[in-house]
Design brief:
Helix content: 40-55%
Number of strands: 0
Distance between the termini: 19 Å
Order of helices and strands: HH
Structural class: mainly alpha
Shape: elongated
Number of helices: 2
Strand content: under 5%
Mean pLDDT: 80
Low-confidence stretches: none
Length: 95
């Protein structure tokens, strides 16, 4: 028997304090984090036991990430964001 996960993200809110000279990086970083999340989620979440009934979570929040845009690459930041989202989702829906 296989279990499926139907995941729909209606809204994604990021609270970011960014130096003015790095603001242009936020959209590409966010797009990359979403792409990584989309690629990693099936493999990461397939290990979770399937819920017995449909469940809707109104909100899932990831923990605070401390990121230094003056030091960290866009890819590093995107990876950290995607993994934080995965972990928060795993903690919300999985054992």
């Amino acid at each position: 028997m296989t279990a499926g996960l139907d995941l729909r993200i209606d809204r994604l809110t990021l609270d970011i304090d960014v130096p003015l000279d790095h603001r242009h990086r936020i959209e590409p970083i966010t797009r990359r984090a979403l792409a990584l999340f989309e690629a990693l989620a099936p493999a990461a979440l397939v290990r979770l036991e399937a819920p017995r009934s449909s469940v809707r979570h109104e909100s899932v929040s990831a923990g605070v990430l401390t990121i230094d845009l003056t030091r960290d690459s866009d890819e590093t930041v995107a990876e950290r964001i995607a993994h934080a989202w995965l972990e928060s989702l795993r903690l919300t829906i999985g054992p």
